[in-house]
Design brief:
Blueprint: H1 5-14, H2 28-36, H3 49-60, E1 78-82, H4 92-96, E2 102-103, E3 111-112, E4 132-136, H5 143-171, H6 178-203
Antiparallel strand pairs: 1-4, 2-3
């Protein structure tokens, strides 16, 4: 069943566009599409919380239901903070950030653009040295501010997706040669070696 584009857009327009995947879908738009087809409940978005649920219920003409806390709890605004002294420059967090709020280059330290970070936590799992922490900003939850920021975040997410697609296309075919695979494995080995050395050094302190 193909959902009506106008309904999908209306639902997506209410979502916070953090692209955090806490709902169990691969981003806000897939979740909106699932709601539009009736295959997903409206209570799976912790960042939006009860306020979003009420807005979605009004839009869809159904009764609101409590947030499904199995997907998480609403939390105050937070941002990622990188321990730059511990960062090994592996660049794995760059692709993971859905709004390109992390800048840096391979084998150089990375940093977070705090004004763009949504605190989605997607940068945490790829980091081999656990040098990223999620820290509360001290600001209260503000649904109006969240809605105002959503269009900008969506633009950054779409730009991120385009960047990844362009990068993948430019590298397609190059990574399948023996030399490329050897270089890739060597890079991975260097990153892991640095991570182990960093962890060993920390353990000896």
């Amino acid at each position: 069943m193909n959902p009506a584009p106008a309904l999908v857009d209306a639902i997506d327009g209410l979502l916070p566009q953090t692209q955090c995947c806490q709902c169990g879908y691969a981003g806000c738009l897939p979740y909106a599409e699932a709601m539009a087809t009736g295959t997903a409940s409206l209570n799976l978005c912790p960042p939006g919380g009860d306020e979003l649920i009420a807005e979605l219920a009004t839009l869809l003409g159904i009764k609101p239901v409590p947030l499904n806390t199995a997907h998480g709890m609403p939390a105050p605004p937070a941002i990622a903070v990188i321990d730059e002294a511990a960062c090994i420059g592996c660049a794995l967090c760059l692709a993971a950030c859905p709004v390109d709020a992390i800048v840096g280059a391979r084998q150089l330290m990375h940093t977070v653009i705090t004004a763009e970070c949504t605190g989605c936590e997607l940068c945490l799992p790829p980091c081999p040295v656990d040098c990223i922490a999620i820290v509360a900003t001290g600001e209260p939850r503000d649904r109006a501010a969240q809605r105002a920021a959503a269009p900008h975040l969506k633009k950054r997410y779409l730009a991120h997706q385009q960047r990844l697609a362009t990068h993948s296309k430019s590298r397609r075919g190059k990574n399948n040669t023996p030399d490329a695979n050897t270089r890739k494995q060597a890079t991975i080995n260097r990153v892991l070696a640095k991570a182990r050395a960093r962890l060993a050094q920390s353990g000896n302190k």
